[in-house]
Amino acid sequence: MLTLQVLDGEFTIHRLSPDSAIPPQVLASDFFTASKTPDELSIVCRSGIEVASEKSSSGWACLKVLGPLDFSLTGILSGIAGALAGAGISIFAVSTYDTDYILVNSDKLEAATRALAAAGY
Asked: Under a CB-based contact definition with an 8 Å cutoff, are residues 109 and 6 in contact?
């Protein structure tokens, strides 16, 4: 089974207009992810970073699937999401080339780690 690690600190999910640039303070941080579509620019970063976003949701904890993961592996997010859904915990998932990150509300972190441990993670 896979191992997950809780990253230190809290995170915020931001929504900006699609023509926005990624703020320099985000680019200089140790952890962030950005996704751009014709409809929006979404940024996940540490909560201490000021971002002038249209909307934001703060108070997220981040779980990292220890990798790197091979592209031939299947069902990783499905298994984690299923275990958390069974416990009534919603997620915000982010994938990188090497691994996956699952964000849960910080007030649900303890319940999330219990549910994942019960599922064998």
From this structure: yes
